[in-house]
Design goal:
single chain, 263 residues, alpha+beta, 5-stranded mixed sheet, 3-stranded antiparallel sheet, 8 helices, 13 strands
């Protein structure tokens, strides 16, 4: 495929110091945290009243993922802005219904427009993408538990020739391939604001006989760059979509997540 770019191996991410500032020049940091009881306890103390109220309305596991994801975002922004996590002003508005309180999250207040954020959580893993002056970003993570569900969508992820190659891969490699493309499409949909169906159609995913994946490059995606990043949880997949030219750094917030994950 002309212009197609390889989705980087999970080993290719650049790790950044959690306390480092985001330099100028279109940089995006991707943070990940495991959803453990200790993480839930620590992150719950970082949330504001509205977030705690929302978490209280969710089922236990969903509430745990929501709490860690929002706490992770607040912790990351706190270090960048030099304010306590509870003082980070966040806002959300649903693009579908127009109501506040749910939907994509953004940094509110003075200076908020230069920051862009994206949140994802699945199973025992939460992730946040945070950019400054980098334009819209989108991040997605997916648990291996959804591999069977994603496999039913293989015809939408790959064309007939590629689907034939998929069937010749081992089950574990095929699962990793499908999750990688799925998270790539999800992250692209979040960054661009397009529907998932459109994102799936734009991925132009290809796979070789070893399971190496390539997706459409910036030339085919109107300047967007889709990249896989190392997922901190075994068997999981993670991807981020940024404007072409933005540098991506990843790191895990182990200070928030001691203990056994909530399965």
């Amino acid at each position: 495929m002309t212009g197609a770019t390889p989705a980087p191996s999970p080993r290719s991410g650049t790790r950044a110091d959690p306390g480092a500032t985001v330099p100028g020049g279109r940089e995006v940091c991707v943070y990940q945290a495991l959803v453990t009881p200790e993480a839930v306890r620590r992150c719950a103390g970082l949330l504001d009243a509205a977030e705690r109220e929302r978490a209280g309305l969710l089922a236990k596991r969903a509430a745990a993922r929501f709490t860690v994801a929002r706490g992770l975002l607040r912790s990351a922004l706190s270090g960048r802005l030099g304010v306590p996590p509870g003082c980070v002003a966040l806002a959300a508005r649903c693009p579908a219904c127009g109501e506040a309180g749910h939907g994509p999250v953004r940094l509110a207040g003075a200076g908020g427009a230069e920051w862009t954020v994206s949140i994802a959580h699945s199973g025992i893993l939460a992730a946040v993408a945070l950019g400054r002056g980098a334009g819209p970003v989108g991040v997605d993570v997916e648990t291996a538990d959804r591999a069977a569900e994603v496999e039913t969508l293989a015809p939408r992820l790959f064309g007939p020739e590629q689907s034939g190659r998929l069937t010749r891969l081992s089950a574990s490699v095929r699962q990793a391939v499908l999750l990688r493309v799925w998270t790539s499409a999800e992250s692209y949909a979040k960054a661009t604001g397009t529907g998932l169906g459109h994102a799936l159609a734009r991925m132009g995913a290809r796979v070789d006989t070893t399971g190496r994946v390539t997706v459409a490059g910036p030339e085919e995606l109107a300047g967007w760059s889709v990249r896989t990043v190392p997922a901190r949880a075994p068997g999981y997949a993670a991807a981020v979509t940024v404007r072409h030219g933005a540098r991506v750094h990843t790191h895990a917030r182990t200070d928030l997540t001691a203990g056994t994950p909530i399965g």
